[in-house]
Amino acid sequence: MIKHHPSHDLLVAYTQGELPAALAAGVAIHREMCPICKAEIAQLNELQAEEHLEQPGPEAIPLNMAAMIESITSSDAIDVPNTYQKKTLSVNNVSYQLPTALNNVAAGKWTSIGGIARSRLSLDDGDIRASLLQIMPNNSVPEHTHNGFELTLILDGSFHDEMGSYEVGDFIMLNQKHDHSPITDDGCLCYTVLNNSMHFHKGLNKLLNPIGKLIY
Fold this sequence. Notes:
This protein is an alpha+beta fold. It folds into two domains: 8-81; 84-215, Jelly Rolls. The chain has helices spanning 8-15, 21-33, 35-54, 63-73, 212-215, and strands at residues 88-91, 94-97, 111-113, 116-125, 128-135, 139-140, 144-146, 150-157, 159-161, 164-166, 171-174, 183-184, 188-194, 198-200. Strand 1 (88-91) and strand 2 (94-97) form a beta hairpin. Helix 1 packs across helix 3 (35-54) and helix 2 crosses helix 3 (35-54). The longest helix has 20 residues, at 35-54.
């Protein structure tokens, strides 16, 4: 059961097209998995359409045109194009089905450190970076906090940290106030977005802090 969702403000920004591509993709992925947020997004879109129709001027869409568009887009008779079929990804001999929101997003070469593998996605926007992150069973990300924000969206598997446990579909937004070390027993694949480096607190991982901006 999904317990963690995008905030209402984030959903509003998503429906208004105000989010950077990496965050918009995260919300779109979560929407595929979460009927609650899917319904809220649909309601927000409907409210925005009503507001648009109430505006006078040549840009307003006639009511009969709006009804026709709704009829077309809601029809079950429409053939679903191949772009809406889920793609399969294989990493370290583990296969995953990717959400359709990532179908047309190019992924970079996978790099691995210990039981953690990462592939950068072509959704960069300024300082914002998006990646696919695989954590193999019985592994963890070293304890860290964040110099900016971090979105983690679980696509497969689960993990837990000092704040709780997380399952497929959970949408987890963290910032400089959060300090954690994600641990997975059975392995997981996540969609992650950061706008700055992580800051490590313990052991040899602290040596990465001076170059963190270069590797996040």
